[in-house]
Amino acid sequence: MAEEEPCAVDVTLRVIGGRWKVLILQDLFTGTRRFSEIHRAVHGITQKMLAQQLREMERHGIVNRLVYAEVPPKVEYSLTPLGKSLWPVLMSMHRWGLEQLAATGNSAPATRESGSQAAELPGR
Length: 124
Known about the structure:
With 124 residues, the chain is mainly alpha-helical. It is 48% helix and 11% strand. A three-stranded antiparallel β-sheet has the order 1-3-2. The N and C termini lie far apart (46 Å). Pfam families: HxlR. One of its GO terms (molecular function) is DNA binding.
């Protein structure tokens, strides 16, 4: 029996699925961030979980990790071009969520106040 072709949605979910990755992406869409900045922005995530999620995202090629040779070490995270290509996916998820909130009579959550494109994504 021939092996089935992978499902495109499954591939996407392997890369951005889970509780934290979309929230990390939301923060990285505002620009390059240090670990501590991401940790402060993604409420409720532990340092261990953040490190794990960033490693997975780096392995999938959507996050770039830049280590500066200084003491103490400085590490910055940013989106790769592949990571930036997820913007329309996140915006579609955002629009769908807004439609569901409206359909159920709930109000939309607060959005970020920054002027970046990530400001349009739902807040936490």
